[in-house]
Amino acid sequence: MENENKKIDQLFSSLGLLFMLAIVFVILIPGVFLYFQYVAPANEAKLTKLKDAEQAWAMNKDKVLAKEAEEKVEDGIHLSTGLIADADYKLVIQNCTACHSAKLITQNRADKDGWLTMIRWMQAEQKLWDLGENEDKILEYLAKNYAPQEKGRRTPLKDVDWYVLED
Length: 167
Ligand code: HEC
Prior knowledge:
Blueprint: H1 2-71, E1 73-74, E2 77-78, H2 89-96, H3 103-106, H4 112-125, H5 134-145
Antiparallel strand pairs: 1-2
């Protein structure tokens, strides 16, 4: 009977051992393997990316901040040029601020024809380039945002049929 008990004990302890071994082989070893195979390299890659990004940021910080400041728009005004940030204003920045300040634009008022005349003059006399298909967009922008100011004044009458007052 005692012998029997011992055998059972032994059986259980070897079963326990087997169980432990099973855990080690089935879970631990594959776990460690998977970790080093997939998780660690992924973390490493993330870290390298982060470091690269950090380095890139450190190198370009000034440029990026300067560009941001340059592109800043507040209350509908593009701060660094003073231009109204309406549709296509970037075309105007690209084509109209290379030779002179945008102040020349913001201080002027004209209708579409007036703006076209100025552009043609600059093209004839000041080497302004052909604006191609952007010309019309630029003219629209200028005529809309820098139109002649007529606050409190009506536009002059045109094509009036005058008639003689009879007494
Ligand atoms: C290639 C150079 C150049 C470019 C690009 C240029 N301009 Fe000019 N612009 C000039 C010069 C030079 C003057 C004369 C400046 C002065 O009188 O001090 C001038 C004058 C002006 C004036 C003042 C005109 C006046 O009658 O007082 C306006 C407004 C103007 N430009 C608008 C524009 C607009 C809008 C654009 C974009 C479509 C543009 N400029 C692009 C060279 C250029």
